[in-house]
Amino acid sequence: MLSAAAVMAPVPAAPKSSLEALLETIKKRDERPKDEPPALPARPTCRGRLPRARRSPTPPRVHLEDGVAEGAAADTDEKPEAVADTDKKPEAVNENKPEMEKENTPEVKKEIGGQEAKEGKAVNGRIFGAKRKLCSVEPVDESPYVENLHEERKDATACKEPPSPYFSSARAKRNGKPVFTDSMDYVLQKKLRVWCSASDEKWELGQIQSISGDDVEIHLVNGEVLTLPSERLLPANPDILDGVDDLIQMSYLNEPSVLYNLQYRYSRDHIYTKAGPVLIAINPLKEVPLYGKDLIRKYRQKLTNDPHVYAIADIAFNEMLRDGINQSIIISGESGAGKTETAKIAMQYLAALGGANGMESEVLQTNVILEALGNAKTSRNDNSSRFGKLIEMHFSETGKICGAKIQTFLLVQSRVVRRAPGERSYHIFYQLCSGASPLHRKKLLLRDANYYNYLKQSACLRIDGVDDAKRFSSLLGALDIVQISGENQMELFSMLAVVLWLGNISFSVIDNENHVEVDSNEGLANAAKLLGCSVPQLVIALSTRKIQAGKENIVQRLTLTQALDARDALAKSIYAHLFDWIVEQINHSLGTGRQRTRRSISILDIYGFESFNKNGFEQFCINYANERLQQHFNRHLFKLEQEVRF
Ligand SMILES: Nc1ncnc2c1ncn2[C@@H]1O[C@H](COP(=O)(O)OP(=O)(O)OP(=O)(O)O)[C@@H](O)[C@H]1O
Questions:
Q1: Where does this protein have compositionally biased stretches of type Basic and acidic residues (predicted)?
Q2: Is 76 annotated to bind ligand?
Q3: pLDDT tens across 347-399, in order?
Q4: According to the annotation, is 133 in a ligand binding site?
Q5: Active-site residues: which are they?
Q6: Domains of the chain and any CATH numbers
Q7: What are the angstrom distances between the C-alpha of 535 and each of 147, 454, 525?
Q8: What is the interface pTM, i.e. ipTM, of the complex?
């Protein structure tokens, strides 16, 4: 299965971007009435701008004459289409895009619908499963559009590029000539390539051989012959369009065509594909030669136009500098799709562009720290982010990085104390246990990872191909670069050791009401020592609760379940505060030189959609956050497209 992450092209924003506003809304959702979903932030009043490459001065095929758009004239006098020369290179065929755009205008849709209605036919969209009615037309040797092409070519104001027959949609009957109700009918008539849904899950590519009534005989590429009703078919693109680097160049944007194109490119290590202003990145799950200084230089100098995260980051950087407007890059996709890697690649590009004073390496090293504390092995991803983050990189007027800020969201705390078998807790615990120096081990009273209940319970202490000790030494280097003092580093590690020892504290039931006392063991002694409290103080905290009754304080013993919950809650709370504290330290360090320059690029990377065998409240929150993000994404993108188009 391919996992893909979508990177939304940079979105210019007001000083406080709509993305930030969205995230704030999500953060504040608890303050709202419970039955009312938080509203999405209003779209900025200033119109969004597409990346420069996507802007065109006037919509294609719109020629203003005496104040009347030619496109509008098509309402009454339909312009004929032409047959594309199938020998043409993909680029040539792709130049037919304006025709497709024309077809998609409301006017043309209205016209199509109107004609169909007049003829008493159902308006067939390109939706799979819609029952199609074949037109009873005589076989034609040539597309009926050919004749019209000649007429059209005579017209000096007409579009210079002949449109593709593959865009054909419902057409009016003209001069008694046969017409096609939709593009699928054209494909059937011309016996072109089609996608067949033979089984429910798989699409097969084939060539139409013959049609009998509603049944179509297709020769599949694997040699099989199938006979299927026409509604189980979807039009396939001509093979000259195989592997186009922008999906909008395709004639048919149906599911199998999109998947086929992505797979075609992926099998050639082209993991990036554009879909208009969105970049689709498919996780290669291996090293691919797509990164590095040489490529950064090529994208910087515009020597290549291939889809890439570098290109997205480059657009953001240029637009930010040129317009002095903050930019946002949203990365979205299911867990394991490659969002965090994509975010890091974008940051590396920006750091290469804006680096000069060492701030760039500080910014990049924050990833090492945050991944150690906030990432873990799950069943879907060996390095799964268990928190959301928004990294704001600030630049000076000359484009040099002058600071950064990290915001984090909803760290999954339960993982510290419990997780599914085969998964791990946060990387840092295993890194500390295997990488700490003998001196550190002594000071922190550390043992190996398999000694701690919190770590060994899920029966997974290692990740294939990952050296935790080596990662720990990288972590120490990153903490130094981000200027976390040696003293603070020791505080961090001793609190981590507290969490581990807390998990080894056990309880014994002392009466028939299930009340407990804390076992006096190594876990209790070491946790108290590292916390800096006495053993009796920790015992009271873990096994009793205080209730105020009138003016009196009553101390009650906890039951076994309550005591275990109290212990786990303390461990989770310490870890969550530690995480927030380290983010605060990082922000303090990166804040030097951060000014209100109105030149920043924010990169959003949150945990992706996930669905396990057993899902908890955290999955609910994660998936809800993703739904909201997707909603924002769709709303912003489609609205933007509409605004630009009309
Ligand atoms: N561009 C890439 N090149 C090579 N390997 C990659 C690339 N992108 C992702 N990977 C591999 O896939 C793994 C998972 O990617 P990543 O952690 O970025 O997923 P994610 O979408 O952030 O997942 P989650 O939502 O669980 O955090 C990485 O650890 C890495 O091994």
A1: 26-37, 76-117
A2: no
A3: 999 999 998 778 888 999 999 999 999 999 999 899 999 999 999 999 988 89
A4: no
A5: 335-336, 340, 381, 384-385, 608, 610
A6: 4-49+277-496+577-645 (3.40.850.10), 61-241 (no CATH), 500-576 (1.20.120.720)
A7: 94, 21, 6
A8: 0.99
